[in-house]
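Second opinion, please. Pick holes in both lines of this record:
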Amino acid sequence: MRPRLSMAGAALFFAVSFLLLYRDILAKLIHDWGASDNYSHGFLIAPLALYFVWERRPLLSALQPRPSLVGVVLIIASLAVCTVGMLGAELFLMRISMVGVLAGSVVFACGWAALRVLAFPLLFLLLMIPLPAIVFNQVAFPLQLFASEVGESILSALGIPVLREGNLILLASTTLEVAEACSGIRSLVSLLTLGLVYGYFTDRRTGVRSAIALSAVPIAIVSNAARVAGTGVVAHYTGPEAAEGFFHTFSGWIVFIAGLILLVCVQVTLARLFPVRSEEESHRPGMEAA
C-alpha cells in the first residue's frame, strides 16, 4: 500500500507542478482552440491521450520500474526550449516543450520501457499544438493553388468558361477566391486526427493503422479540390451567393462527411486485403501493437 501511496503522491506533486509551470501557456492554448476552427479538435486530444494511457495500465503494471537520470536531462532540455520560446515569443516552442517534459518525467520516474509503452499517447498530444505561422503558411498556400488548379480543370472539362490567376478562379458571373480558409488545411488536420483515432480502434496492427491515418492526407486534399470545383459549378449557374453564406458552410460539411466515408472505405479495403490471422488476434492485445 505504501509504494502505491508514494507513487500517487509523486504523481499528484508532478501534476500540480506541471500545471503551475504551464498554466499561462495552457490557458492560451485552450483559447486558441476555441478561436481557430483549424485547431478546434484540440479539445479532444488530451482526453483521448488520457484514455490511451489508461488502456495501457496492464502493460505499465507489468513493468519493473527502472528510473533513469537521463529523464532529468530531457526535462532540463525541454525547459530550455520553453525558455527560448518565451524569450522569442514563439508559442510553438513553449507548447511543444510540454510534451518533452512529460516524456522526460516518464523516463525519470519509470524508465525507458515505460516511455515505449506511452510513446503513442505522448506523440498523439502533438496534434493539439497549432503549427507555427511560417509552417502553416508554407502548407496552406500550395494547397490553395492545388485546389484552384483542380477546380479550374474540372470546370473547363464541364464546358464552363473559366480563367485562373493564382488562387483566383474567374467565371463569367463572378470571381472565386480560394482563400486560406478554403485551402483544405482545416479538413486535413481534422481528418488526419480522425484517421489516427479510427485506425487505432479498428485495427491492432501498426502498419494498417498508419496506412489509414496517412490516407487521410490525399483524401482531404482531393475532397477540398472537389468542393472548390463544385462551388464554381453552382456559382456559374446560380450566382455568386453560392460561394458564401449557408451554401459555403454546408458544402464544407458535405465534403468532410464524404472524406469520412472514404476513410471508412480505406479501412474496409485494407481489412479485406490484409486480414488479421486468428493466431495474431488471440496473442496480441490491441495496446501492444500501438
Observations:
- The longest helix spans residues 2-35.
- The two ends are 31 Å apart (CA to CA).
- Residues 2-130 form one domain.
